[in-house]
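Section: Multi-chain targets

For targets with more than one molecule, the full set of components is provided together so that the structure can be written out for the assembly as a whole rather than chain by chain. Components appear in the order listed by the source. The example entry contains two components.
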Amino acid sequence: MSGRHSDRAKIRPRDGMDGEARRVAAGGDAMGRREMNDKTNTRADYPSHPTLGAEKSGDVVREAGGVSSDDKYRKLIFFMPTALWQVDSRAAGAAFAQLRAEGVKDIGAYLDAHQELVELACDTVLVTEVNREAVSLFRGGSLSDLIKPVRYLFAATPEMAKRVMISHFEGRRSYVEEAKILTFDGELRDVIFSVTYPTPPEQQEITFITITDVTDRLRTEAQLRQLQADYAHAARISTLGELATSIAHEVKQPLAAIVTNGETTLRWLEREDFNIAKVKHLAGRIVESAYHASDIVQRIRLMAVRAEPERAELDLKAVAAEAVSFVRHDFESKQIALSLDIARALPAIMGDRIQLQQVIVNLLMNSVQAIDHADAAERTIHIAIHPEADGFASFSICDSGPGIAEEDLERLFESFFTTKEGGMGIGLAICRSIVAAHGGTISASNHPAGGAEFRFVLPIAGA
Amino acid sequence: MHLPNPPVIAVIEDDAAMREALSELLEVTSLSCRAFDRAEAFLAEFAPGKFDCLITDLHLPGMSGLELQKKLNALGGGLPVIIVTSALDAMSETRSMEEGAFAYLTKPFNDKVLIGHVRAALGQGEDPSS
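Its structure, encoded as tokens over all components, is:
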């Protein structure tokens, strides 16, 4: 990093074009040079070729032609709202040519072993021109603050220098990396760092670097992700609310059994003929039911907990089985038969168990409600879990409900789209978000035999 | 006191732990019981006069407790029905009482309350020992 700007002359507007500026512009190697002189610099703090080596500068002058046309481009480039650097990387090019002659093939390995070459490049590859936006991005005082060896471009992402060199050595056209830069006033910014290399017979001294500040965009994206997480959390809690009746029933069963067994135990203890085997048996039952209640509470807590999505190897069968157990009571009370078709050999998938259970519970509840609402005579839900081609595993659920209206099929996964009275229309939207976040897809269709079919596929672990 | 035909309580409860707990409670209270996991199983054994009291859950797989009440009312015989449920909605209670439930208890229930209702249903309500 450099603090040189602080004691440099500040950008000063300057009207007209004096003789000095004209001369420099006619020198012709520099985009924006004239404007820079016009607007911002005095001769004193901006020499005509502040950075080029003496033996190179002659080439530059000779190669640059079409002055008046270049002037127009320079002016445009100077005012372009993209931070642009022109870099003379012939120092690196010469070194590369020598390495090639020595038979170096794996430049990455070579630079790993010769870090000093990267350091040398940082000090000898020179910025020859920059535009106004570049000065602004680095909070420079003047253009000349940026005209120097490229090291300052890599201050916040030093290892990128090597990657830029590797791409250059390998003869690539360009290199793009998301990186950080350190501005002259000490702020880290997130940027897209792009390099465009010259390819013979183009002028070898001109490498372009553009740097796009994406700090604000990334911040907005992070806020958006946070909102989505909040939204998913709210939906999760909302689904929990819908399941509350079912869960209350489920947790009260073992609690009632504990109470009754405890009271029965007390009654035995008060009897003169109490038998110790009976009391032991009841105590064992109490412990069993207490564990059962605790397991249920734990599952509820896991559903409600605000957790970062986890990535673990999961058995989709087990995930589905636990999700089914959440809504088991609804199946029974609504007299819906569940049939399963599960592949014997199913590779593990990568994902967040709780989130995927949310998806399955949502799909199950939708099917249960569809069947119940239609008061269908046939009341069945069929779940199939299979490995698919191309490294995916699929989960599908078919119900014997009325199916989905054709005009609704497309909008089904949109937020706030609902066909249910009192529905919020977020369940399937969340399902889609979760499945997408797992690298999978979800779709809905009407089964040829009638009823709705929802199907999602997820990538298997290590595929 | 010797009863020539000791009363038999029927219990219908789909949750195995709760079903066993009810059976144990009735056993320690010296009441005979027959437990069923669903209404259909109970109806298969039902005959007027065979049972003296029925304790049933409302949420059952297959026929619900309320449907069973209607069925028993249609069959006649006046079997007292005690509802024991984890449902908290007033509608369930109103409907069950309309169908003539003898008592409506929510889980978890107090053993003395349940046994008190059972004794009352059996016409032993005056017995203060339980």
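The interface with chain A takes residues 14-15, 17-18, 20-22, 24-25, 28-29, 59-62, 64, 84, 86-88, 107-111 of chain B (CB under 8 Å).
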